[in-house]
Structures
1.
Amino acid sequence: MTIAPRRSQGRSCHVIPIRESLKQARRAANPDMGYDAGAEALMKETRYGMGVDVALPYEQAVERATDELQKEGFGILTTIDVRQTMKQKLDKEFRKYTILGACNPPLAYRAFEAELEIGLLLPCNVAVYETDANHSVVSAMAPIVGLGMVGGNPALKDVAREADERLRRALKALESIDGPPGA
């Protein structure tokens, strides 16, 4: 999805803010959901993803993210240790950063049934990275935006909407964590 300039009074242009464009994409996919801007105040959103800050050390954040994804029916197909890869391939130092390839098999099957080439956009990537010793960020791709690149396939829109809901619930559960036990 690209963000297009919007005309204002026929003379000047401005860019639709990223948060607004993501909300527009969600509303277009399901206008009856009634997304409340106030309800998502802690979740950060970009044009292509959503994420939460968690009061957990990196290793615990990876573990808890995996657990919350599993509660929503996602298994982890791939785990990419970005820090290790950067060191091995480029001899560069990088922060602790993992990309989890999360897959919900029933949703994936429905997506493949709706659009065979959808494998180019799967699995749902979830990134976990360290911001300091006791804090991390967990972010996920925005399925409605990502799968929206395919076009107006209604079956695929339903899959994207459900994946989005499940990923949001997983992130919301992480958002409520106060910190590691004993912190």
2.
Amino acid sequence: MSETKEQRELAEEVRQSVDEAWPLFVDFLKKKQARVTQARRIVLTQVFSRHDHFCADDLAAELSSGPNHVSRGTVYRTLALMEEAGFVRVIRDTDVHAHYEHIFNHPNHEHMICDACGEFIEFSDDQIVERIAVACKQKNFAERTHRIVVFGTCEKCRG
């Protein structure tokens, strides 16, 4: 089966992101005195190839066999390091399940999560970002990051 132009462009985008992010992640790992391994590069590449909100277990299952096999523990440890380094963000649903998304070179956005079906809906609002910046300035607070998650019922489930 031949890949479409869209698939080739996506694969190229992923490769470019990984090529840009990997040296930054290596620097971060070295500063943390953490090991730089091929398994961690495989995890980073797999995360960057996803464009959804995924659970660590799903990622671990994808990497549990085949030529790019990575242990479940390595997946979890690498995701934690990637979050600390600012490459992924964790969003918790109402059941406190952790969902991940890669945020490297992606614009900031917030989330709405449907209580009924679990759908993640992304949105951006410059006014929210501005209000957070003003509040931080007023409190002399240095923001590292923020996340806003709104829980409710989506249009389909209310239907």
3.
Amino acid sequence: MMITNKKHKNSEAAIAIKFLNKFHVNNDKEATEAGELLYQWKKLIREGDKEIQGIYNYLKLQIDQYEQTVQHPEVTGAELLKYLMEEHNHKQIDLTDVAPRSVIREILHGKRDLNKNHIARLACKYNVSPALYPKEITEQNSLSSP
């Protein structure tokens, strides 16, 4: 896959695109580093830096492709949610864009499972592939409410 940026031929974005066209995520360390970079770039894009959108999309694709090839240890939705919250120093109140605080509390205490809507929102919020979430959650709760 080749990404081009004709509009900004001599910009840093064009140089980065040229480099990234040869780049592939090959291991967990690279995936983690790339994910951290995506998190920073997402903030820049939200602040109006649209020049890096193509690079962002390409790197996200590389991470998604790598994650599809990796066997992830089986964890519960609550364990994964706790991990993501700790990694990003988030509290329950920081997840109100995913679900109401009471629902987040129930998920964290094992009284409720994540559903497809929660997973989609968490994947977007934390820049992780929905494939990272336990399969039984995505299959069981396709009709659950947010």
